[in-house]
Amino acid sequence: MQTRTAGISRVLGWLLVVVFLHAPGAVLAQEKASEDTPADVARVSVTAIVGGDIHTVSGGVIRGGTVLVSEGKILEVGQNVVVPEGARVLDAYGRVVTPGFVAISMTGVGARATQAGSPGEGGGGDGGAATAATNKVADILDPFDRNIKYSLSVGITTGCVQLSASNRRGRRGRDGAPAEFFLGVDQDPDGVEAPEEEEHRPGEEFLDDEDSTCGCCGLTVLPTEPIVPARPAPSTPRRHAVLKMSYGQLDSMLVKEHAFYDLAPGALASSESRYQWRADIKRVRKSMAMSQEQPGRERESGERSRSSDGSRRPGTGGGRGRSSGGGSDADLLRLIKKEVSLRTQANTVDEIRDMIDLATELDYDLVLESVIEGWIVASELGQSKVPVILTPRSRRQPRTGLEDRSGSSIESSGIFEKAGVSFALAALSSSVNLNGIAGRDLLSLPLEAAFAVRGGASEEAALSSLTMVPARMLHLEDRIGSIEVGKDADLLILTGPPLDYRTYVETAMVGGRVSYEREKDGIYPPRGGSSR
Amino acid sequence: MTRRSTLGIRNLTIAAFFGCLVAVQAAAAPPKDDRPPLAILVGKILTCAGEPVTNGTILIKAGKIEALGLRSEITIPPEYQVIDQSSRFAMPGLIEAHSHVGGSGDLNEMVYQTNPELRNWDQVIPHNERLKVALAGGVTTICFIPGSGTNMGGFGALMKTGPGAPEDVILRAPGVLKIAQAGNPERRGGETGSGRMGMNYVVRQQLAEGREYVEKWDAFEDGSGPEPDLDLRLENFKPLFRREIPVVVHTQQYQVIQSTIRMLHDEMKLKVVIDHGTFDSYKLTDELVRRNIPVMAGPRGFLRDRDTGLLMGIVSEYDRRGISILGVNTDAPVIPQEELFFQASMAVRYGWSEERAILGLTIQVAKALMIEDRVGSLEVGKDADILITTGSILDPRHYVTQVFVDGRSVYDVKKDRRRF
Fold this sequence. Notes:
heterodimer; A: TIM Barrel; eight-stranded mixed β-sheet; five-stranded parallel β-sheet; 14 helices; 17 strands; 25% helix; B: alpha/beta; Urease, subunit C, domain 1; TIM Barrel
């Protein structure tokens, strides 16, 4: 007994010596000090994620590396990075570090119904331009939305959140619906898909009697029948904002107030609407040339100027002119200046070619969504450098007589990669759904990347489709999408390879701040002992 | 084999009586077998009957597994066609416990609340578009059942997903009885049975009538009673009450499963399969374990616990509490039939073990449906329903490259466009 105590104290003594001799490496002791001493708080705090295999996305994998984070940005990345004194250390030994995932299709997260600005009050009631002009995304942000935590729990740190009504799935939006529907601000018009119910109430899950539901259990059945060209639809742009999943931190949530110029499927399907579209773009381009603002800014990322938060541009509130299509001239201006891309669904080969041709002719950036038959024209997509938003598990049967040349292909992801088409991923549903069906809603986004690998894409391309590609689509590649010095410190510590279906997010950091920890956040049961 | 032939004779009787087009389980002399004997060389064989076999060989003859073992221990006769899959995995074809995509989509007759007279094997469309994709997802056998629009939707069939005439693909008909408790039938309005008290009565009343009918026939066949009149409406109850086929029950939630156990197992003495068993039902596992009732959970895979807010994996919770025959289902087309494996993948993500998940896609389902003598594992004498995959079926990154059903290659990515 005596000797053991003596032994322990001797070891402790040696440890103290070691600590003092190798101060920078004495991580644990220093961390404790930095938490305890008020003087350290004032200093610039540094967080170090140590020991993990770092999938940088832009620069390969760094085995057993360190990422230093300071003031919300990535300070240093590498194998031989010295952890400075006083740094807070997050242990990632034996685990994997990746950039936070970017969800390009997201609804019902972070921007929820609030008391602020109900329709009919505050001048938002006359629809269209006035709504766009007076309603700020900032007014409807909810940094304590539980769906933010759920999103973080699968690694989503940035989302392109759709604020306008969706008619992508579910019921079709009617003509004459308000020009712009704003979740939480406008009243839910008829024919607008309601946000999915989060609460489960026993018994009520069976009440749905829609045609698209199962005859056995009443759950939604996704369509698999052959695709048809989209019917002409109003060309009112739908609104998206880019939000950081900075749980509890309102100030850092809004990244970009306008993410895309998003048109409903079929908005440019009729010759009339295309005529109007050309006329609108030409008119706005002309007025832009006449105005004092510098036209034709180059697209290269380095030369593009952006306000620090990328939002609240003066143009937002303008809404001066109004194109007949429904979008304001300010919206079109953003498109023409290539600050945002045109985003629209194109499924058939003809639709895809039409959209590429129009974008080339009128010179704007294009992002195509859904692209069921994109694999057939992959080389054309690749040549025109049009990125696509893909859901690898979407399945539509081929048309009769065109069995090998129509419908969806599970191999789309591989075909796209070979043809040089960059693709981002969307889950089967863009919202968080807790009705109990696992692996089909927004929370399955990383699993969709595994399906991309199933379709022949490389693991690198699949990881990129969750990170760098959507970042580029949002014109935010200088801030998010990879682990590089100077970029936002949106980082994940994963329990295993990023595309393994068994991998869990252990820690999610948003803007340098730990925003999710599996062990503490109470979303999933603790690991171990769960199964026999 | 005896069960199969007696069923066949019974069905022939019915067919003869009523001139039905489909003579299920034809007992006539089988057509000449055109299948060549096969020898498949495999990197890793997951037999679902014991330990995996590394570097193994499977011999197939006349649609059955003739031999299986280490490559070094199996001699391939010269007439066998050799298929080299030595860089791949092999496993038994997956079995679906709850599917509606085996034929025409009219699942419900919504006039009466109980419909024991209905059978869906005349509706079977072998190898239809959905089943072609299902095969590519590794599903080779499905339990094709009527919907749950009424309390007793009718009798379903167990069928293979490969091509062939209906009599070739149907594994057993009547395969199961379908009963739906709570939920869907409650969508009806007005009549008895649209509430839970009413539906419990109509189900028990109908089963009691069926039991009495079968008892009369049993007495007649024993020689202890007069010959009863044939009643087509009740005829399919015979294998059910003789416990040759199970009843698969659309049942979920604690309270509803309590009534399933009480009525169908304890009172009616039926072979019961819980086919959904979602929401908080897993908290009733003790009662199910005591009666050895199988659970084929899904398509809902998790529950947000009311008290803790945690997302609990339903399958892993059943597993942890000791259900021995445990599997997953898709309720296709709710979850596409080809994503049966993914139901198990998600269950693993929520805490189930991978080993049990593989069994829960194959042999456990076969046991629940009482077809473990035919399918569900790779063992000598069983149907040669074999998947060749690039890796674990549970990992979405891996996929099925070839499928054999009854010893015939029915899907091969070398020849066919990849379907999933």
